[in-house]
Amino acid sequence: MQTHFTADQLADPLIVEADGILRNCVHCGFCLATCPTFIVTGDERDSPRGRIWMLREVLESPETITTDTAYHIDRCLGCLSCTTTCPSGVDYPHLLDIGREKLNEMVPRTFTDRAMRQMLGMIIPHSGRFHAMIQLAWLGRLFSWAMPTAMRAALTKIPAQLKQLDPIGGKNAIFSAKTKRIKRVALLAGCAQRALAPEINASTIRVLNRLGVEVVVRAEAHCCGALAHHIGEATRAHDAIRAALLAWHDEIRTGGLDAIVVNASGCGTMVKDYGHMMRDDPELAPVAKMVSDASKCNARSVTETSIPSSRIMTTIAPGISIPADAAIEPGRIAAAFGSCGLAKTLAILATANVISSHPNRRLILVSGRGRVLNVTSSKTASVPYEPQISFDRS
């Protein structure tokens, strides 16, 4: 793609970075077939190729930008399916980040939009507040008729049943290995996950402890900062990143860490990018690079901690390990869902095919039916994907 930035524009390091990314795009259109919003709308402006054109205009000719431009760029889900399809290696996620940052400065948002984003930034990254909001959602539904469209849509996405808030992450804690300790890792407890899926952290810790991995959880690292970052709440995002980096750096200095484990693939993507995001911060840049290098999505962290292969029978996704002596009912079927965050942003592709090597297990790997969800938009849509089914030979 040709660009025509002026010398004054190229004085901005972000524009220089964006220019290099834009020039890699050859408009081939391979990305269209894998973009969920384009599949639903059929609108070129809702495709990665269309958004790249618009992002160039945002950076090159800001005087031409309208609220319509912001509308289509905001609808990007950030699933990054396009990145594994692109033959030219376009760094779409960083281009999107740069464009959104500039766009927030150029296009005034409505009062409702600003209020919605500030509310999300204040509540969801704090699991206690988010849990309380879910509790009070029934009250909001009574008055949904008087709410703006975006808020009514957000209410429909709040689960009707409330689970108990996950206590893991509420305070600093160390979970000791059940056998001889061979590794020590930090676990990002997460924010929304603690309210929506409170059993995940405990399950992860049990598996790691059983395999000889000590797990430390720091309350200060309560959120990776991704939600605030993606909705334009830059200060909140920076504060969350800073708190997490300082907490983990303290653990690295005092007790040592072999890895930083993240259960949510979206959070894993964010933590992996800390080194890039904080590269110009004189205080945190070296810490951020250290943390990014140590970060591992939980799905593959176990096998990357050098656990003796004699203790592992099968590896799932490829990280949740089944010891050789595990009791597995013959003929039992296992199902696994391939997360877009794992496959697209963290390049963890072998989701579950290795499960079928276990003599007593059959596998169904379902790519499934995905829901295109955007919490700041009133639009939702179901996107069908052909299921991939694989059985063993038994």
Describe this structure in words.
- It is built from 19 helices and eleven strands.
- The protein is α/β, with parallel strands linked by helices and 394 residues long.
- The chain has four domains: 9-106, Fumarate Reductase Iron-sulfur Protein, Chain B, domain 2, CATH 1.10.1060; 111-156, no CATH class; 173-301, Rossmann fold (3-Layer(aba) Sandwich), CATH 3.40.50; 311-384, no CATH class.
- The strands form four sheets. The chain has a five-stranded mixed beta sheet, sandwiched between helices. A two-stranded antiparallel ribbon has the order 6-7. A two-stranded parallel sheet has the order 8-9.
- Strand 6 (314-316) and strand 7 form a beta hairpin.
- The chain is globular, with a radius of gyration of 22 Å.
- The relative contact order is 0.09.
Helical content (DSSP H or I, runs of 4+)? 40-55%
Output the CATH topology of the largest domain.
Rossmann fold
Strand order of the largest sheet: 1-3-2-4-5
Mean pLDDT: 77
CATH architecture of the largest domain: 3-Layer(aba) Sandwich
Please report the number of helical segments. 19
CATH class of the largest domain: Alpha Beta
- End-to-end CA span: 52 Å
Query: Total domains, how many?
Result: 4
**How many strands, what sense, and barrel or not for the largest sheet?**
5 strands, mixed
